[in-house]
Amino acid sequence: MDLHFADAEATEAERAAVDRFMSAHASETGPTKAARLERPRSRERRDLLLPGLHALQAAIGWISHGALNYLGAAIAVPPADAYGVASFYSMFSLTPQAPNVLHVCDDIACRANGALEVVDECERVFGPEGSGDSVTWHRSPCLGRCDRAPALFVQRAGEDDFDHGPVHADLSGRAIDGLAELEGMNIDLGIERSATPQGQAEVRLLRRIVERIDPSSLEGYRANGGYAALHRAVEMGAESIRDLISESGLTGRGGAGFPTGLKWKMAAAEAAPRFVIANADESEPGTFKDRVLIEQDPFALIEALTIAGVSVGAEKGFIYLRGEYPVAGRRLEAALAAARDAGLLGRDLFGRGISFDIELRIGAGAYICGEETALFNSIEGYRGEPRNKPPYPTQVGLFGRPTVVNNVETLLNVLFIIMEGADEYRRLGTPTSPGTKVFSVSGHVAKPGVYEVPFGTPLQDLLALAGGMRKETGGMRNITSFGSVLLGGAAGTFLGPEALDLPLANEAAIERNASLGSGAVVVFDTETDMFEMVSRIAAFFRDESCGQCAPCRIGTVRQEELMVRVGSGFDSGGLIREVGRAMTDASICGLGQTASNAVVSALDLGLIGGDA
Amino acid sequence: MWLGIDVGSDIALANAVGREIIAAGLTNDEFIRSATTGFDQYQESVEPWTLERGEAVTGVPAEGIRELAHAYAKAGTAQLCWTLGITEHHNGSDNVFALINLALLTGHVGRYGSGLVPIRGQNNVQGGGDMGALPNKLPGFQDVENDELRSKFELAWGSPLPAKNGWNISQMFDAMEQGDLRSLYVIGENPAQSEAQAERVRDLLRGLDSLIVQDLYLTKTAELADVVLPAAASWAEADGTVTSSERRVQRVRKAVEAPEGARADTDILSAVASRLGTDLGEPSAEEIWNELRKLSPMHAGMSYARLEAEGGLQWPCRSEDDPGDLFLHGRLWANPPEGPLAPFVPVEHVAPVDELTEEYPIRLTTGRHLESYNTGVQTGQMSSPKRLGGTIDLDPHDVRNLGVEAGEVVRVISRRGAVEAPVRVDRNLRPGLAFMAFHFPEEVDVNVLTIDAWDPRSGTAEFKASAIRVEKIGA
Amino acid sequence: MSGLEFILDGERAVAPAGSTLIRALSANGVETPTLCYLEHTSAPNVCRVCVVEVEGSRPLVPACSRLLEEGMVVSSDSSRVRHARKLVFEMLASSVDLSLVSEETGAWMREYDVDPGRFGPTLRTDGPAASMRPGHHERPDGLSFASVAQPPLIQDDLYVRDYAKCILCYQCVNACGPEAQNTFAISVAGRGFEARISTEFEIGLPDSACVYCGNCIAVCPTGALIPRTEFDLRASGGWAADRQSVTRTVCPYCGVGCNLELTVQDGAIVRVDSPLDHDVTSGNLCIKGRFGFSHVGAQPRSEPA
């Protein structure tokens, strides 16, 4: 490939940022001038594109044409391709912007808790969205901090990013020339502020979190049962692990519910090299359980992914973490380093010739990258667009190799199963949905947070665990009684009071045309403007559609436009249902296939529309 | 992998690759034994070409030469493809022999997917040769000096033919200089601008008794002519055939009318014949082609109907049921090989004739831009957004050392002449290596600089290697 | 060759192993609408107008890229299939100028009674959405409906990029990249409805890596990429298909032997293509072959440039 770069030079700072990045990631540093001997294929490091863009964004605060050229030359990626990738993600700016960027969540759970007041306040303090020299702000889709709504996420040039919540509307006082102050509030988000108020019920995945074990200490982790499962797994051997996982009936917690043991067996049956990936791109609005699990117990994910690697026969694993989780990212990075130092990752583990290491990859603001094939493309340095299936990831996955992708929560169950056995795992839950499920409960409940309950627990019991409907108002209007719940996040469905007895298990949900999805439970009272909420969901899908296939690219736009007509009573929702059916039937991936669920269920429940 | 070879060191590179293939035991011994001759002499000739010596002469790191040698020898199939960078040297034929030796060493010839591929620079260079537009060949590569073959043509054409080989183009200019060549009929060439050492060429053309030019355009050569015969464009204004690099004969067809007065080449030649007293009639392109099929066995099977139906045919195609050959030299793999064995031809590296000295320290190589064609007669009509125009392209270091800037007009001087050209900075070059395109003779008459030292076997001049110096104007 | 048995619209059918559904259906006399699909390139699988129903698959499947399996039960004309195709056509037609799609596609749109007007009036946008931040958009007003309408990009005399006609089928990006030219001058940039074909930072084509091979024009199914000669004639109302002839010949510029199809109108070449099914270059050309034709034809020529 003959790379052509238009005239645009990188600044010294940009070159330094790329050179630092390259020296950390590759043997050769910086773009080399055409030498006497060049091997383009060995120079090509397309998989470094996304982290390279992160390096520029983090150091400079935006990505200029010259910077993109310089990075492209270093990793031999054509500039048009690099631009196509950079412009795909909402965390990258391709125009100059203020060094401090507030991403203000205005999504459903935060909106139920006063987010629009924060938005108004930002506009008043900082000016219009996107403006400002030292601080700017943008509205953001769900930041996965629904337990502390309303939330914001701060991206900073040259400094660590951080997130924060709940944000009080009076930003002006503490505002962002007081960034340090805001950050200070975040310093110890340890146990007190953690989103796991659960105490009484039987917990498995949340045990160390409830017991407040220090997430930064490998020793603490080991002293509390950590790495016992890996040692036992190594004793068992790869095939026995796969059999045990199959026997347990463990199914995927990301939403699709595929049997985990079968997935591992399918990948193990294909030729090496293979990959295992922990999907931590938790972006489903209303979902934050994986963030809590990682922030509070990072070693557990590392141990579980290592077991998956051993069992599947992979020597390399990836954790793909969403970019808006800076604390989880730093804790994972530190935990990975500690595990490597302790000989728990790397070559010839336990003297048994097992090699396994994990690379942390950070997303950059794209919901679609939680779709497993889009996630592959994102890691490989392509646009995060889903691939056509078949072939399935267990056959042709990351870098074209057999790949297992598991949700964070799914992997953590593996630790329990290995230590306690399949029968003990099945003791809780239902025959077809054995085990426990971690739910993210938010909205108008008294104690928003992460709750682990056995599959089959009635919805009302889960809500009771979360303290029922909130009484105090936090300065806002009074909260009334239960109105509706959005189960499964934006891709899920609305359910009314008649569904409070719904047992939270996959099969029972399907019977009511619903799905547990990611386990998001967003509760709204009777006074909530549901048209506003459903419109926000429609806007979310229009923003997050990758644009690859026509039904989703245009359908999500038409859905949002038609919502306006439904809201103004011009349309009873006939055409919106037609568009929804086409998206569900003809889209490439789950995003388009579920983009109309919430809208259609809201119509069905009479939460919106009805009088045309 | 890209190897930044120094201009004019192709034989050194090939010999070093050959030595490495032998030294590493990667030769195809079975093929060498059964299908070739002269291996021992070849081995002896390349023995001094260690990787280190290769690096010293070619500038390519030894490691790169080794990698190339191993990759080529170990490949299941491999092709050596080249263009004028190999042939436009004073020793262009030797360059080609050096490459052929590599194919013989490894057996990468005469098999599907393997081979030696000279890529033709013009649409019908191959076809011109096929039709006998060579000083020593009749149509179908039948030797002029073979009495039996020649008499076949004499019988068919009812006219005696010269019994001796003619001159190649370089010999023709020498003959003009000697006064032995006094009249020239040029069809579709622009030697006044395309030949090396252009000033000499133009002087010689002016000195002819008569110059006849048949062309689409009133080219610089045509401007010197006594008679100009306006021609139609063969690919869109007339019918016929062309032959591509892969020996594939394909039909060209008339799509538009030529300008008034311009006629198809065949019409013009028939009319000239008639003025000279021979009535060739007004044969169609197909009738002319069918005559060729009778006289050239390798074209015998290629009827117009088949060319149409099969999207072209590759020669040799000896009969109507012959599908044509996808590749040549398959005979070498027969057991025993059919016909003569393939000889290794040991060749020695000889540096370009135009020496680099303190006075002329920069190596100039000439060539093409993607968007232009030859002297720009046709492509000049296209409004191209990518046209760079006539420039001297230099490495950024050389530009800096000269104290000039991009776009600044400088004087480029060789031992034969001087031109002025604007500087273009090209990071793909190296210090001491300059490039000029030959598409824009009206802007920059590049061939004033080039040397007409030519290969005695091919008659091709060393366009690819001149020695120059570049001067800042007004310095 | 081994054949696979399957059920097509309730009837037993057979097609060669390794067939895509679109070929398997065609082999059994059932044609499928397409927009982004071309026989000779790998299927982008993005327009989704070719979807069919396959038993056991929850969503419909794209006939262009799904491989036939033994025993598959395929419905090509079920109400789900007809609905999805109709809606996808309607959504495309309501947001993109489809005036230059093939006659076959037009016939399919009539077959499905496509009425893009159901969405109401479309909104005119005035240029590429480069300034839009991914994940952000203007709230709709419910009165007009978004489209990709925008002025054509005319940056040189060779060809025009009229992205108001672009359905984002990726064929041009693939042709510029791995499928044909390996130049990678263009890519899809942005996301969602703001996704668009673009150079880096929207720089002009002459400054980009583009080598003007025009192989993107050859694969564009909607006339969004179009030779300047054709664009100008269409703009002036002078394009007259009924006065055109197409002649096959060979490119005059090098020894490769690329076949050309010259479209001639009123004695002048107005467009050059290369046959997609010819094994010399499979429809691909370079700048000289595709655009270097102005030196022939009946206009007087005396001076070389």
What does this entry look like structurally?
Chain A has four domains: 5-86, no CATH class; 100-181, Glutaredoxin; 207-426, Rossmann fold; 436-605, Roll (Ubiquitin-like (UB roll)). Residues 28-34 and 172-194 of chain A have low confidence and may be disordered. In chain A, strands 8-9-7-6-10 form a five-stranded mixed β-sheet, with helices on both faces. Chain A is of the alpha/beta class. Chain A contains 26 helices and 15 strands. Chain B contains 17 helices and 19 strands. Chain B folds into three domains: 10-119, Dimethylsulfoxide Reductase, domain 2 (3-Layer(aba) Sandwich); 125-314, Rossmann fold (3-Layer(aba) Sandwich); 362-472, Barwin-like endoglucanases (Beta Barrel). Chain B is of the alpha/beta class and 475 residues long. The two termini of chain B are 41 Å apart. Chain B has a six-stranded mixed β-sheet. With 305 residues, chain C is α+β, with helices and mostly antiparallel strands. In chain C, 19% of the residues lie in helices and 18% in strands. Chain C has seven helices and 13 strands. Chains in contact: A-B, A-C, B-C. The interface between A and C is large, with 72 and 60 residues.
Mean pLDDT rating of chain C: 92
Fraction of residues in helix of chain C: 10-25%
Report the major sheet of chain B: 6 strands, mixed
Distance between the termini of chain C: 57 Å
Number of domains of chain B: 3
Uncertain parts of chain C: none
Helix and strand succession of chain C? Answer: EEHEEEHHEEHEEHEHEEEH
Low-confidence stretches of chain B: none
Q: Which fold name is given in CATH as the topology of the largest domain in chain B? A: Rossmann fold
Rounded to an integer, what's the Rg of chain C over CA atoms? 21 Å
Assembly form of the protein: heterotrimer
User: Structural class of the secondary elements of chain C?
Assistant: alpha+beta
Query: What kind of sheet is the major sheet of chain C?
Result: 5 strands, mixed
Number of helices of chain B: 17
SSE-based structural type of chain B: alpha/beta
- Estimate the strand proportion of chain C: 15-25%
Radius of gyration of chain B: 24 Å
Strand order of the largest sheet of chain B: 15-17-16-19-14-18
Anisotropy-based shape of chain B: globular
Count of separate DSSP helical elements of chain C: 7
